[in-house]
Automatic annotation (TrEMBL):
Residues 98-132 are annotated as: Disordered. It holds the Pfam family SspB. This is Stringent starvation protein B. Signal peptide: none annotated. PANTHER family: STRINGENT STARVATION PROTEIN B. It comes from the Bacteria.
Length: 132
């Protein structure tokens, strides 16, 4: 039996911790051909996404994909992020969270599935602290 990754579970746990603590959960995503995000907001192959309840609509955090609707510059976009492309999840207010090594799919790039949100454009570079 294939081993189940802990990554999606850790992402969901940190999302809940941020929400319970009154923090804004943000994802740092390494964008590739499977990642559906507004290209104008991608910098150096990465994008920071606000995934708070107030910034997203129909947020789904499953084991393979993170999907939601969000507004960028007043325009609604359907966002789809493969869990393996998430580089970090952290609280915007204090930078606490977890960093992951994004994994390349290793095969031909497949299109993102249909996504399911109001998000602010990224502001500055995030700083991460190791949570022990």
């Amino acid at each position: 039996m294939a081993e189940i990754s802990t990554k999606p579970y850790l992402i969901r746990a940190l999302y809940e911790w941020c929400a319970d603590s009154g923090y804004t959960p943000q994802l740092l995503v390494a964008v590739d051909g499977r990642t559906r995000v507004p290209p104008a907001y991608v910098k150096d192959g990465q994008i920071v996404l606000n995934i708070s309840a107030g910034a997203t609509r129909n947020l789904t955090l499953d084991n393979e994909w993170i999907q939601f609707s969000a507004r960028f510059g007043g325009v609604s976009h359907e966002i789809s992020v493969p869990v393996d492309r998430v580089a970090a999840i952290f609280a915007r207010e204090n930078g606490q969270g977890l960093h992951f090594e994004p994994v390349d799919a290793g095969g031909p790039t497949e299109p993102a599935p249909p996504a399911q949100g109001d998000a602010a454009p990224p502001k500055g570079r995030p700083s991460l602290k190791v949570v022990k």
